[in-house]
Amino acid sequence: MTAGETAGATRGERAGGTRALARAPRPHSGALDAAGIVILVCCGVWTLVAAAGRAARPEGTLLALLAVTAGYAAGRILGALLPVLAPAAAAGAVLALVLVPPTRLSAHPDAPPLGYANADAALLVLAVGAACCAAWAARGRAQRIGLRLAGLGAAVAALALGSAAGFAAGVAVTLCSLAAARMRRRVLGLCGLALAAALAVGGSYAVAEHTLPSGLSESLTGQLTQQRVDLWHEAVTLAVHHPLRGVGPERFAEESTALSSDTAADESPQSAPLQLAAEQGVPGAVLLAVAFGWLLCALWRSPRPTPVVLTAAAALTGLALLATVDHVLSYAVVTAGAGFLAGTATAHPLLENPPCPEGDPDEETGAGLFE
């Protein structure tokens, strides 16, 4: 062996070692999990604080917190044991629940599984994310293609239910999943998704307060319906008048004064951030934002390959966008599904260095933030 060959071999070994290091799982910090537990506990405690001394009903929020916690725990366990089968089975179960009942696509308002088309569409968006995550973890090319087609089928099913927003979110998740293969730094993708969620929340507030240009405001109001915009405006008004504890969980309809009784009865503000601001004050809305930020941070530190992480993050951001304009998080099944997808995307597979068909293009370890 010549000196040149020795130098070339050394360079090859260094390059191989660098690639192996780049694809090595991220070190998992227990401090991040502890922070998530603290945030969930704070959400539950503040719900009870906001309900104290009033004829409030905190059970709905507490059930949602319990559902997302149970879903996340199940996702972490099954994602570690079955990184491909777990998300694939979850996506298949959602598709079966939506498509198998004979009256499902009849446009009847009470059709199963949830009796609300937009909530079913939110489940389908999560199914798209789960199918695409399973595709990235699958070994065979045929399996990957089949799972991605199943994800597109879930998006089309959302359109068949009459949810154009759900269809758009599902297609966007699929495209983001395909584009994730070329992302070298997952933190950039996660920051972009966080910005999209922040813009959606800010946009809903701007529409409610009529601070947008008149032409744009009228166009958005026509798409969202005037009744929804009125509900948002009422929620902002209640949050301004009760900034600390809000009016109490599930008391929006009783405290609404600007809306007619026919409009306000049995109505929520049709927006998760605005509902929390109205019913639990500014701290409730801040805790929701902190929980979403923790979720993105957990995905950043996830040991799963970058395409899996960004796919799950895109699906969860799509759900966040839908929750900004509708009350889809009022359904415990939806929150449990979100927790399950987040759990599978942050689980540490029991197999050493689980394969990623296209390779993990991420080179950023993110170590040290919570160490």
Tell me what you see in this structure.
The chain has 371 residues and is mainly α. It contains 15 helices and no strands. The chain has helices at residues 3-23, 30-51, 59-81, 85-99, 117-137, 141-160, 164-179, 186-209, 214-224, 226-241, 252-255, 261-264, 272-300, 306-325, 332-346. The longest helix is centred in the last third of the chain and has 29 residues, at 272-300. The radius of gyration is 22 Å and the shape is globular.
Keywords:
371 residues, mainly alpha, disordered C terminus
Give the radius of gyration.
22 Å
Low-confidence parts = 1-25, 357-371
Principal-axis shape: globular
Distance between the termini: 45 Å
SSE class? mainly alpha
Q: How is the biggest beta sheet arranged?
A: none
Summed up:
Helices cover 70% and strands 0% of the residues. With 371 residues, the chain is an all-alpha fold.
List strands and helices in order, with pairings.
Layout: H1 3-23, H2 30-51, H3 59-81, H4 85-99, H5 117-137, H6 141-160, H7 164-179, H8 186-209, H9 214-224, H10 226-241, H11 252-255, H12 261-264, H13 272-300, H14 306-325, H15 332-346
Helix pairs in contact: 2-3, 2-13, 3-15, 4-5, 4-6, 5-6, 5-7, 5-14, 5-15, 6-7, 7-14, 8-10, 8-13, 8-14, 10-13, 13-14, 14-15
